[in-house]
Amino acid sequence: MNKSINILGTKYSIIYQMQEDNPKFDEVDGYVDHATKEIYIMIQRPDKSSVKDIASYQNHILKHEIIHAFLYESGLDAQTHNCDSWATNEEMVDWLAIQFDKIQKVFKELKI
Prior knowledge:
Blueprint: E1 3-7, E2 10-18, E3 30-33, E4 38-43, H1 54-73, H2 90-110
Helix pairs in contact: 1-2
């Protein structure tokens, strides 16, 4: 289930783990470790408080973390401190992750 991807010339591993195997999952459902070039995604178990479409939710978390990795590899992660750290702002990263498919569809329609 684990995969590798290329982010701006840097190989990142995507690692899926159960919550009990990673203490960071007590606070987040996914994160990027820039030092090791690994993206961690928590494997969700269906329960009464989980979303119905767990696979879709995990894909959203993965997109979000990939955006973080792209911003980091672009040098934007460390260079936004003079403008309220927009590149590390969770709301901004989530907006990019949510809207990317829609933006990509428009570009494809226009063949640009």
